[in-house]
Design a protein that fits this description.
alpha+beta, Alpha-Beta Plaits, 2 domains, six-stranded mixed sheet, 66% helix
Length: 402
């Protein structure tokens, strides 16, 4: 904050970088009437000394002026605290400046009245009270330095005039020197205040940037974790995701007391397809078929690419009949799907499916379920492909033709 800005009585130090909450807190402190209560008590003490020394009229005038200023400050503080608007509107700044300048003028008048023609004791008390008042104003000046400069000038200026009229000429240079001392103190306080606000503003900005970067990093980590469980060609779950999900399903099934079904799916004659139409056409074929399969299976369970042209599907809570219906719909969906986007490739493709359904009981393991599904798939291929074969009780295989 430049010196010119400090001299502006309506300028709040650091308002350009302070948050609305900080501005409100600063004005709330400035509106506080506590320092004015202490100033009024000090002036009342000096007035009592004046009354004891025979200057009762001066004491009454000084006290009335000080009390009037105090009541006005209490009144505007009351209205400020109970205002409805937020953030702080400009009119509240203007009202504070008016009240502050009125207090400075009132203190200056009260101290001048008590200083002029008073006893040495009263003058000493008055000067002490005045020093406490202007020192207190200087200590709070880092919030609104321009108003404090004027306040201190009013108090010391009016007291200097009273001392000059009373013949105490040395008081004037003392007031000037004291004013210069307080001014340098205020300037340093404002600089410290600005440094603090800039540090707080930078800290808040860095915290927001750090929070944003952490959020972006968390999103990136989530996407990376998803990619770690995703097959890059088909976008389905990969073998790693299947293993994890299958283990969880096997662990939950006994507690839930529900069956679990597993489908082994193999694209028919896929090696011949690759040799005939090329690997790019083969990749496109897998992408198209995996989408058709997933549309049927994903509402019921998890479809994963097991390796090459082989897929595997987990169907929790599906018994033999319901799992077979899903498997048959998946087989038909593939058969009805046209493979577009590849040159010279056949219009459609078929799959063979091996299905096993069972309760997870002692003696039934991950390996036994996989072996049974694989055996059922082998049987489907042996019987001519494009069909679903299901294993009964992990061993007795029955065939469902196309």
């Amino acid at each position: 904050m430049r010196l010119v800005g400090m001299l502006n009585p309506f300028s709040l130090a650091g308002s350009d970088i302070a948050s609305p909450e900080q501005v409100e807190s600063t004005l709330r402190e400035l509106y506080s009437s506590r320092p004015h209560v202490m100033a009024t008590l000090g002036i009342a003490l000096a007035s009592q000394s004046a009354a004891w020394s025979g200057a009762g009229r001066a004491g009454v005038v000084a006290t009335v002026v000080a009390v009037t200023c105090l009541l006005f400050r209490i009144l505007i503080e009351y209205f400020y605290v109970r205002r409805a608007s937020f953030p702080v509107q400009e009119r509240w700044v203007l009202l504070f400046v008016a009240g502050s300048l009125l207090s400075g003028l009132g203190w200056g008048i009260s101290c001048s009245v008590l200083l002029y023609g008073a006893s040495a004791t009263t003058q000493t008390i008055t000067v002490g009270v005045a020093c406490a008042i202007v020192q207190g104003a200087a200590g709070r000046a880092f919030m609104m330095p321009g108003t404090a400069f004027i306040n201190i000038a009013l108090v010391l200026g009016l007291m200097g005039i009273a001392a000059f009229l009373d013949g105490n000429y040395v008081f004037i240079p003392a007031c000037i020197l004291y004013y210069c001392f307080l001014s340098s103190f205020i300037v340093q306080m404002v600089r410290n205040r600005m440094g603090q606000l800039r540090a707080e503003e930078m800290s808040e900005r860095l915290l927001k940037e750090l929070t944003l970067k952490n959020d972006l990093l968390r999103v990136a980590n989530d996407k990376l974790a998803e990619k770690a469980f995703e097959d890059p060609l088909t976008g389905l779950a990969n073998r790693r995701k299947f293993d994890e999900t299958f283990d969880e399903a096997l662990a939950d099934a006994p507690e839930r007391q529900t069956p679990i079904s597993l489908m082994m799916i193999d694209v028919d004659h896929f090696k011949l397809f690759n040799d005939t139409y090329g690997h790019q056409a083969g990749d496109r074929c897998l992408q198209v078929l995996s989408k058709a399969l997933n549309e049927v299976i994903s509402p019921s369970g998890l479809l994963a690419r097991y390796g090459g042209e082989e897929f595997v599907a987990i169907l929790p809570d599906h018994d033999n009949s319901s799992a077979f219906r899903v498997a048959e719909r998946a087989r038909q969906a593939v058969q009805l799907t046209r493979i577009i986007g590849t040159e010279r490739s056949p219009p459609s493709q078929t799959v063979s499916i091996g299905l096993v359904s069972c309760m997870v009981v002692p003696g039934v393991s991950r390996e036994s379920i996989l072996a049974a599904a694989d055996a059922a798939l082998y049987e489907a291929k042996q019987q001519g492909r494009n069909r679903v074969c299901r294993d009964q009780n992990l061993g007795a295989t029955s065939t469902d033709a196309t």
